[in-house]
């Protein structure tokens, strides 16, 4: 029998070692797996490469990973955040590497990794410094830049509900990077608000099929008002 | 008279047609939503995975899982849909968004856009979805003050700031005038301030094509 | 006000001219927009390029397009069908062109067109005659083949329900090529069983957002038993 | 004794572990579903957009919108999910399907697979999803009769038919024996017929590595 639920966040993040490349879901707070990030912090591993759109955003769980010196490199589209200085200080002191990626390239490169694509040509970034030194190609009269897939050892994502097969549904804009990250990592670990009985999720509405989920925890917790989550 | 930020937003809103799919950037572009004509059905896209985005959520009624690209809590319109990030950016990059409206540090006479970083060595660079919109939206509209705080024109012959996209901007709405970028150069569509095309060209620093007409409404 | 519903299939396919490239949804019968194909047949246009996974399958609406001599070229993964000879005869007589594409490359090339991708590298087909003369590249020790996006002038797809914005949901395996074709064509025309009021489709379950749909017809008809559709 | 089609399918089924995600091809591979052990939860994928596919629909209970890759009306298991074609093939091509089981015209000693067309000039070529599975599944298993109707071995040193994929097959289940393709060559895991490894090598036409053991169950 398949049952991908594990008991706690510590067990969920077991196996993550120093030097791992970790995708973390979320666009700002929505979709951010806070309990899993806390568990990762408690696990004490370091030299991590973190892939997250807003890595560095103010005072949240991810920035505590930075503050604790656990992160060697960040791959993201927007590390700036009002009210945050942790990332800025580390970056300006040369203590953290930054690979800045246009957000669509970030999403598409993650999707490519999950889909078995070896690389693709995109118009985004052509003629800018973020495409400097990248292969370019003229296709049907337009300029394209070659981008490579972004793989990870682990993906930590947050969804709304799961069943024991690991089928996931999300809520509103918290869906964001979860579905593509789940497919791009060797091991995908989800944090959900609730676990439901197998069959309770309509097969037509499942966003992430369980094939992409290795294990998950259920927090029993459904944020509907931001005051609750902060 | 120069336009206020709200007046610029209102001026942009007049040009968005019924049925359009529109992505509004952070800042003044977001204000455009407040001035969209009531008799038009215009569908707003937010890069973090939604079509049919509504206005800001009322205090106390925020949903922690529903924000716009600026991380502001928003609402959903009837008819809305959600999708994941790769699908959202496929929509932007595949040429499906009719209009995007973005702020800018500089726009060049060829329509080059610079809006993601200055040349400061102490600022943290962040690009977000700006390059995807610049490359992918059918019509890229910019809103900005025409002059910087130190009086330099932000409409320039060549951008001195790093580019977001090359030759992508179609129209520029400013506090002073509205411009179109066309193959022959930059064309003035409307002037709000008490200037003529020649004076405006002098202030901007290169020759602008005058397409203002007497029919032009000067707000 | 947005209302993308049109009155009949003839109006829906107006604008399709000789020489058009047309994607047609469906994996066999599920997802095949029969009423739109019939209308296309009635419209009398010819010299068409048809992109459809099973183009040629026995006796259905698409094979009638072939039989009527309307199709110059077919791009598909599997034209063979038990009980069908229309395509076979035309093909063996050299009267129809065939571009045979592995099914995953077909789906991914269509997806690429909708997503603004100029081309991509895939492992599928490497070392086979379907990749002969194609660009190959060694990426991380594995061989990849370069594939290009597949665009179309029109997409004819079938869904289950639509609202007036053109938001679509599908039923079961009839979803297949509809969502990717809708995004890859200049003009997308859908055939749905039912139109519902705006807001009746849960925003979380919409599969094809209306941005990808130009117009649709409602047949008022819901097949649940195959005897009804054949 | 050589195995029947059903016995080959049953033999494959024994090797599919609990929790596996499996794609079964058309023909004998489809029969594997009937023999999966009751105490294992195995999730079937069908390329036309479904995980958790159930068995064939009963007569009169077919759903026109629910078929497998062979266009046979099927059912859905509790826990099933649907997705579109690009997502379905991303699942196959991205290395997420644990096992695929396909038929074959020929398999070479290096694991090259030929199963999409013969060299006939009058047949209509069709490839479907075979090349995607060959390139993308974690474990590619083949089921076939070891010999053609004219007695030629379908396990060959080099395929004479056009390839579906190069060096992709891991295991071959036949009516006569089960083989693994390993770097050193082709290894016999089990022999069902009354032959020893040497005799089997002679029939196949090249030297096979003997890994059969006395513990091997001969059905």
UniProtKB/TrEMBL annotation, chains A, C:
Highest taxon above the source species: Bacteria
Protein name per Swiss-Prot or TrEMBL: 3-oxoacid CoA-transferase subunit A
Matching PROSITE patterns: COA_TRANSF_1
Alphabetic keyword roster: Transferase
Family to which this protein belongs: Belongs to the 3-oxoacid CoA-transferase subunit A family.
UniProt GO MF annotations: CoA-transferase activity
A family per Pfam: CoA_trans
Gene3D superfamilies in UniProt: Glutaconate Coenzyme A-transferase
PANTHER family named in the record: ACETATE COA-TRANSFERASE SUBUNIT ALPHA (PTHR13707:SF60), KETOACID-COENZYME A TRANSFERASE (PTHR13707)
UniProt cross-references to SMART domains, sorted A to Z: CoA_trans
UniProtKB/TrEMBL annotation, chains B, D:
SUPFAM superfamilies: NagB/RpiA/CoA transferase-like
SMART domains assigned: CoA_trans
Listed Gene3D superfamilies: Glutaconate Coenzyme A-transferase
Keywords from the named record: Transferase
A Pfam family assignment: CoA_trans
Entry superkingdom: Bacteria
InterPro entries according to UniProt: 3-oxoacid_CoA-transf_B (IPR012791), CoA_trans_fam_I (IPR004165), NagB/RpiA_transferase-like (IPR037171)
Entry's family note: Belongs to the 3-oxoacid CoA-transferase subunit B family.
Protein name per Swiss-Prot or TrEMBL: 3-oxoadipate CoA-transferase, beta subunit
Source organism of the structure: Cryobacterium levicorallinum
Lineage: Bacteria, Bacillati, Actinomycetota, Actinomycetes, Micrococcales
